[in-house]
Design goal:
By secondary structure, the protein is of the alpha/beta class. Helix content is about 65%, strand content about 10%. It has 53 helices and 22 strands. Helix 15 (about 340-350) crosses helix 44, helix 37 (about 980-1010) runs antiparallel to helix 38 (about 1015-1065) and helix 40 (about 1080-1120) packs antiparallel against helix 44 (about 1235-1275). The protein starts with a helix and ends with a helix.
Length: about 1550
């Protein structure tokens, strides 16, 4: 330094700085260190920054006034610096030689200012709106210039004025321009040209992208939302759109790309290990049955070197780099943390010494404050990076799982049920998200521990080892607890999976449960699982309490042992304030990493379990797109199968073998056969859904698929039909007419804009099937695979559809059609027939050929279709009669006779003829033109009508998000569930624990004051003893508290809330389930119940602890320095104010987030059930996009949620930092009165307050958002219930109903309040033992009539009387258990076959085998190895639809009640089985009253009477013969079915 500054300017003068009352820095120091610091910073940072700017350009910014001014100022600074330089040269020429520093410093400064000016312009060209690098540079420059600024003024005031006028002037010019630059750099430039911010005003872009550096640092840009959320509850339209780089569109492909890379690597490593890999695979898939995960891992390890692709590595590659930026911030923050204890040491030293100048104390206080602020800003940047990484992770994982679920094989589907996969998406993805926040603690905690120990060693020497030993001993203790907890967690997850799966089934089959009055049995099943789950939670709570006690008393035990050892080892060791409180504050720093490490490790372990689950799912086999050869090669055959052998899973028996079939282009092939012979399997094989064991399939052209059970989305009717195709009015109208949907539109409340509930719940079976067919027809594919679409509709509608759509005259003629059917009447009109018997093709050929062959098929036909084959000419005559004798609306099934123009009418008549003539003149041009004309005429009438449509109420109401403050009543509900007195007692215990902690510290500060006392040696044991007693009592209180709180009272509350909700849901009326998507109810049973089980107790616990802690700090500081109270008031006001803004906004964001979460899972479970349809139509991409949109929608409310926490953190910690500052300042001011012990106590407490203030607001808000779960569960617990299950004083006698007489008296009913009546004023009497057939077109109210008997619909007026008992007066279970129904849709539950037949276990095995014989399932069941314990999968997927129907028949036979209702039960069954069923019903239920809703009229021709319903009223009611003679509606229907 001598060479630089010369001898007369010394670099450092202690007398001038430290010991002076008015301190100043020497000139040499000012000219070198202070001047160079900002320059060094800028030159070091620029290369990296320039490299970054070269890589990332956001477009360029137009030159603005702001930019010009900044640039000009930069140049002025350069000129000012170099003026100094030239002045020095000038003086040299004058012979006045200056030291070298006068040349070097201006040169360096000038160069630096040029660099800064260059950066200003370069940033403009790269689209940087606000520069952090330059902002920090200007701040440093101004800070470093403040010292010379002050000292120059002091010098000027002292001597004879200013000696060096030029440099004096240039310095102040320099200073003012630097300050101006600093101020200007706080402002933002305009957004870059062509950036999406400017061009995208619609989307409400996030202000973060345009926010300035300061704004980003303090999260100021969020304030607008906080204010908006405070003024009125936020809605989803107020949310900002996601930043581009956080959207699924970028995030998911990024991860999937890495994952594909991993898979490729894994395959290339060891192809020769395949044999072993295959061997250990089954073990993995049976994971969910009973093998414990450990066993599976052992098996996997045994596969020597089979390398699984690592999902973890893919995650790291995709999200690691961004995350590392956050880690860098964390490192910086960790280092700054340790500055404050050093400053505290100096402060305590300062209070001890008498002669120190007071400015030293003040600067220490301000340095502490500065450090703390810096730490706050850095920490929150770190958190922001971590949380954003977590958010991207979640998006990516959900996206990956969704995409995978669209392509997994059926075998893989079996091993992961819908519930499990939804859990992967919700719980496991969430775990990763939570982990990212703490992941850095893995290296940061050890680093903090090492640093803390180093400083402690310096303070207390080797005694520290005693304290460390205690900590080290606690680690294995906690590790054991963590291991056990993990085991319990896995167990709890299994129970939870099980419970959700059960609930899912209950919700899907709720109608059946109600019809059979089985709710109680299923409630017991759920409660058994729940009991197990709670038992595990209780064990986990015991462990948790121990662990909490260990951690809370850890810092205390450490301090106790360390101090005790330190004092006892050597008599000369004095525990003074400095040592005690510096080491206490270091122990407090230690406490956080030690606390966090085990948490991080447990959450790592959890995430590892999740990782394995996700990885297993993502490595499932995918459907091989090569199963079906789809190459567009010209060929006469649209579909060919050669030697096909197919099974549902690789290890199953083949379901189809030896299949050979060729389907010519444009022909219609019918597939017939008995139930379970593989008809649907054949269609699946053609779609490529089955494992191709041998042979090959080729399909030429696009495919449309109509599954046997229609798959309907939760969307409008029109969207269901369009299915992603553009809307073309004319084509759409034609499709509706062809599928006979036009009349239904008039019935539906909103026409084709009616919203269809989940799984099409508000459409009848026939309507669903026709919508599914309309979707296929609209898609204009080349090949149509129709899996029995005609079974669910009435006979005349089936005829209409066959004629208009499928048949040789239908809209699909010229397309290749493969029709699975049970309807014999259509067979003469098909080109080819394929007969399947037990999985092989028994014969194939045209109708005539097969008749001639006289094989099985001919035999089959002879039995059934003598009536069906009518000669062509008869048909003509019939038709002509028909037109006179048909009442109007019967005809309207085919057409609507609306137009009065005779020409059109004539054309219609012509058309009718055309439809019904089964002649082969398909080439007839006249008929064609008529059909076309009709379509176009229909259009004009229709358009007008469409305009008049009124807005209809949606069926599924949007999920309500409560707004505003969580009502006190919710907390009160929770407290009541816990027990009000108990709640008070728990609060009292927390206060006690806190008091003990504070007592221990005050005692410590008294102890340190013994330092100068001569009698200290005698006191040591007493001091140590009391200190120990206080600390241990604190630990004991914590333990008592945790046990009481978590293991007893809160679990009690969790049990009660779940029980009430379950009860309410099972008691809810049917209408509730139609209006509420099952995903929403499941969400309450999984997420919300989980919150009440595990999150709320944690929240309450932490909140209580931090609350009392904060109160303590403020009490201590105020007690020591009463002036502190002055500061507390404004600080607490600010605190309260920030907290109100935050809580209002954050709570609403949480609610929006949880509301937008359900659609992700609803859409997902909907997709999973319809994968085959989605794949058949090739719409994977669109569904993936829909899912991504829903995830992004959810993240849109999650992202501001994270930022709100950062926004709050920065503000709250600022308050905490002020507390530190004032505690320090008042300690300096009250230096005379306070002992060093008390100063140490108040400042070290203040240092801790930031953390606890922060936690307290965070917990308040978490608690508020989580307590919403109680509110949501409570909302469903208060669902209005249906009538009571049993009415004690009105119980009917046991043998009721003895006769089976049923009477409807002036009966009307509607589906829900405010809707039209479905049945109007129905009056009829049925005697016991009568057989009644109910017919009428779809929507006439046939099914509703049966629902009324079971009181699933309650009467609007009138009543139903069964054997003299008014059914409205007795309990529902009493009523429903005495009636039997075979419902339209056969529903099975997962469980054994036995449980499906007899859930209450009332009947013996013999009874059950007996009914299986009668229902023709005997052969099938006795061939199964498990017999009656045959496991049915979810929804009975492993039985064919026909077999499920037979199981329902068996249920009915088992109950054998007086009154039997058949609801279209024979729809999915071939004719032979149908006949068997009918004969079974005739013999077994001979003396019962039977109501049958019939599609196949031949089943009811011999019934006692037939009831014809039309538009909800009785049209005709008489014996079949009389009705035919009357030539009314029934006659027309019989005619259509070809039975008259």
């Amino acid at each position: 330094m001598e060479q630089l500054c010369g001898p007369e300017l010394p670099f450092w003068e202690p007398n001038l700085t430290l010991h002076a009352e008015i301190p100043d820095l020497p000139q040499c120091f000012q000219l070198t260190v202070l001047a160079w610091t900002p320059c060094v910073y800028l030159w070091l940072v620029s290369p990296l920054y320039l490299f970054y700017l070269k890589r990332n350009s956001k477009g360029y910014i137009m030159m603005s006034v702001l930019n010009r001014v900044k640039t000009i100022f930069g140049l002025i600074l350069w000129l000012v610096c170099w003026t100094d330089l030239f002045a020095s040269f000038h003086e040299m020429q004058q012979g006045h030689v200056r030291p070298p520093v006068y040349f070097v410093t201006p040169l360096i400064l000038g160069m630096t200012m040029l660099l800064a000016t260059f950066l200003i312009q370069f940033e403009r060209l790269r689209g940087v709106q606000s520069s952090g690098v330059l902002f920090i540079f200007w701040v440093l420059s101004v800070l470093c210039a403040i010292v010379p600024f002050r000292s120059k003024i002091i010098y000027a005031g002292r001597e004879e004025g200013v000696s060096d006028k030029l440099r004096f002037t240039t310095f102040y010019a320099y200073f003012s321009v630097t300050v101006a630059e600093l101020i200007l750099s706080c402002f933002n430039e305009k957004p870059p040209l062509f950036s999406n911010v400017a061009t995208d005003p619609v989307n409400n872009p996030c202000p973060e992208s345009t926010a300035g550096f300061l704004s980003k640092l303090t999260f100021w840009w969020f304030t607008s939302m906080a204010i908006k959320g405070y003024r009125s509850p936020l809605e989803s339209k107020d949310l900002w759109s996601l930043n581009k780089q956080d959207t699924s569109e970028l995030v998911v492909p990024n991860l999937l790309g890495e994952w594909e890379g991993e898979k490729v690597k894994a395959q290339s490593v060891e192809p020769e290990m395949k044999g072993q890999a295959m061997y250990s695979k089954p073990a993995v898939e049976s994971n969910h049955v009973g093998t414990s995960p450990e066993e599976v891992e052992v098996l996997l390890a045994g596969g020597k070197g089979v390398r699984q692709p690592s999902f973890l590595r893919a995650l790291l590659k995709a999200f690691g780099p961004y995350f590392l930026i956050g880690s860098a911030f964390k490192l910086l923050q960790d280092l700054i943390t340790f500055i404050n204890p050093q400053l505290l040491r100096m402060l305590i030293e300062f209070t001890k010494e008498t002669g120190m100048p007071s400015w030293w104390g003040f600067s220490l206080a301000f340095m502490m404050f500065g450090c703390a602020v810096l730490q706050t800003l850095i920490l929150h940047q770190h958190f922001q990076y971590c949380f954003v990484t977590g958010m991207r992770l979640r998006s990516a994982i959900i996206g990956a799982i969704y995409r995978k679920s669209l392509v997994i094989t059926n075998e893989a589907k079996r091993s992961s049920t819908v519930g499990e996969v939804v859990n992967l998406m919700s719980v496991d993805a969430q775990r990763f998200m939570d982990l990212t926040t703490f992941l850095n603690m893995l290296w940061s905690a050890p680093l903090q521990i090492i640093l803390a120990l180093y400083f402690l060693w310096q303070t207390l020497g080797p005694s520290v080892l005693a304290g460390v030993a205690v900590m080290v001993l606690l680690i294995p203790f906690n590790a054991v607890i963590a291991m056990k907890t993990k085991a319990y967690q896995v167990e709890q997850m299994q129970h939870k999976d099980m419970r959700i799966k059960l609930m899912n089934e209950i919700l899907n089959g709720i109608k059946v449960l109600k019809l059979y009055a089985w709710e109680v049995s299923f409630r017991e099943k759920v409660l058994q699982v729940r009991q197990k789950e709670l038992a595990v939670l209780r064990k986990a709570a015991y462990l948790g309490s121990l662990s909490i006690m260990a951690w809370t008393s850890a810092p205390f035990l450490v301090a106790l042992t360390t101090f005790a050892v330190y004092v006892s080892v050597d008599e000369n060791n004095v525990l003074d304030a400095e040592k005690a409180f510096v080491s206490l504050s270091l122990f407090n720093i230690l406490r956080f990493p030690l606390n966090m490490l085990p948490q991080v490790i447990t959450s790592l372990v959890q995430a590892n379990v999740s990782l394995k689950r996700i990885q297993t799912f993502l490595t499932h086999d995918e459907l091989d797109p090569g199963n079906v050869d789809r190459k567009p090669v010209a060929s006469d055959f649209a579909v060919t199968v050669v030697n096909g052998k197919f099974s549902w899973a690789k290890k199953d028996r083949p379901a189809l073998h030896n299949i050979n079939a060729m389907v010519p282009q444009g022909s219609l092939l019918a597939v017939v056969g008995h139930v379970g012979c593989g008809k649907s399997s054949l269609v699946s094989a053609l779609l490529g859904e089955m494992e191709n064991l041998e042979g090959e399939i080729s399909v030429r052209g696009s495919v449309a698929y109509v599954p046997q059970q229609a798959w309907i989305q939760n969307a409008t009717l029109r969207d269901n039909i369009l299915f992603g195709k553009p809307y073309v009015e004319q084509k759409y109208r034609c499709v509706l007419n062809a599928c006979a949907l036009t009349p239904d539109l008039d019935v539906l409340p909103g026409g084709d804009q009616t919203e269809i509930g989940e799984k099409g719940i508000n459409l009848s079976g026939g309507q669903r099937q026709r919508v599914s067919l309309a979707r296929a027809l609209y898609s204009e594919a080349d090949i149509y695979l129709l899996d029995d679409p005609l079974s669910a509709v009435d006979a005349h509608v089936a005829k209409h559809i066959f004629d208009n759509v499928i048949g040789p005259e239908g809209a699909l003629r010229g397309k290749t059609r493969i029709l699975v059917t049970h309807g014999i009447s259509f067979l003469p009109q098909v080109d080819n027939i394929l007969v399947l018997v037990e999985g092989t093709v028994s014969e194939m050929g045209s109708y005539q050929d097969l008749l001639k062959q006289n094989g099985a098929f001919a035999e089959f036909l002879r039995n059934y279709s003598l009536e069906d084959i009518i000669e062509d000419d008869d048909v003509m005559e019939v038709l002509l009669d028909e037109e006179e004798s048909f009442p109007d609306d019967a005809l309207s099934n085919h057409t609507d006779m609306v137009d009065n123009e005779p020409a059109v009418n004539e054309a219609r008549r012509q058309f009718m003829r055309q439809i019904s003539v089964m002649s082969n003149d398909a080439e007839n041009p006249k008929a064609m033109s008529v059909r076309r004309r009709r379509c176009s005429e229909r259009r004009h009438g229709e358009l007008v009508q469409e305009k008049k449509k009124v807005q209809v109420e949606k069926l599924i109401q949007a999920e309500t998000a409560e707004t505003g403050r969580v009502k006190f009543s919710v907390y009160w509900d929770y407290a009541k569930a816990v027990g009000p007195l108990l709640s008070l007692f728990i609060c009292f215990l927390y206060a006690g624990q806190s008091a003990a902690a504070i007592g221990a510290n005050i005692w410590l500060s008294q102890w340190t004051n013994d330092a100068d006392d001569s009698a200290r040696q005698e006191n040591v044991h007493m001091r140590v003893g009391v200190y120990a007693a206080l600390g241990i009592s604190q630990g004991a209180l914590i333990l008592a508290n945790s046990l009481l709180c978590r293991a007893y009272s809160m679990l009690k509350a969790a049990h009660a809330t779940h029980l009430n909700m379950l009860h309410a849901i099972l008691r809810a009326p049917q209408a509730f389930f139609e209006a509420t998507p099952s995903g929403r109810v499941l969400n309450r049973f999984s997420k919300d119940v989980d919150t009440i089980d595990s999150l709320i107790p944690d929240n309450i616990d932490i909140w209580m602890r931090t609350f009392w802690y904060t109160v303590n700090v403020l009490l201590i500081c105020s007690a020591l320095t009463p002036m502190f109270l002055l500061v507390i008031v404004p600080l607490m006001t600010f605190y309260w104010w920030v907290q109100r803004f935050y809580v209002a906004t954050s709570r609403q964001l949480k609610r929006l987030e949880s509301v937008s979460r359900s659609p992700i899972y609803s859409h997902f479970s909907e997709t999973i059930t319809g994968t085959s349809v989605i794949r058949a139509y090739g719409r994977n991409g669109d569904f993936v996009l829909m899912s991504d949109m829903k995830v992004d929608e959810n993240q849109k409310s999650y992202y501001p949620g994270i930022v709100s926490n950062r926004w709050l953190g920065v503000r709250i910690e600022f308050i905490g930092n002020c507390v530190v500052l004032f505690a320090g300042l008042f300690a300096v001011l009250g230096k005379e009165k306070l002992s060093p012990g008390l100063v140490g106590l108040s400042v070290s407490y203040a240092l801790q307050v930031t953390m606890s203030l922060n936690w307290m607001v965070r917990m308040t808000s978490d608690l508020e958002s989580n307590i919403v779960a109680v509110e949501r569960v409570k909302e469903y617990s208060e669902t209005p219930s249906e009538a009571p299950w049993e009415v004690e004083n009105k119980k009917p006698p046991n043998e009721w109903p003895p006769e089976g007489n049923v009477e409807f008296a002036d009966y009307s009913v509607r589906y829900r309040e405010g809707l039209e009546l479905v049945l109007r004023n129905i009056s009829l009497k049925v005697k016991g033992g009568e057989k009644i057939g109910i017919v009428g077109r779809t929507g006439a109210g046939k099914s509703s009539m049966t629902l009324c008997l079971f009181r699933l619909l309650e009467a609007a007026s009138g009543e139903i009387i069964i054997d003299g008992v008014k059914i409205a007066e007795i309990g529902l279970h009493d009523l429903r258990s005495k009636l039997t129904i075979i419902p339209q849709e056969p529903v099975l539950f997962s469980g054994t076959l036995r449980m499906n037949l007899d859930p209450f276990e009332k009947y013996s095995d013999d009874d059950i085998w007996n009914v299986l014989k009668l229902s023709h399932l005997h052969k099938f069941v006795s061939n199964q190895p498990a017999k009656l314990d045959l496991e049915c999968s979810e929804g009975g997927e492993n039985l064919s639809v026909g077999q499920r129907q037979l199981v329902c028949l068996a249920r009915a036979l088992l109950r054998k009640s007086r009154i039997l209702i058949l609801d279209e039960a024979t729809a999915a069954i071939d004719l032979e089985t149908d006949d068997l069923i009918q004969s079974t019903i005739r013999t077994q239920f001979e003396d019962c009253t039977v109501f049958t809703i019939a599609h196949r009229l031949n089943t009811i021709m011999d019934y006692t009477r037939v009831l014809v319903l039309d538009k909800g009223q009785i049209a005709e009611f008489d014996t079949p013969t009389n009705l035919i003679a009357q030539k009314g509606i029934f006659y027309g229907m019989v005619k259509d079915a070809g039975l008259a």
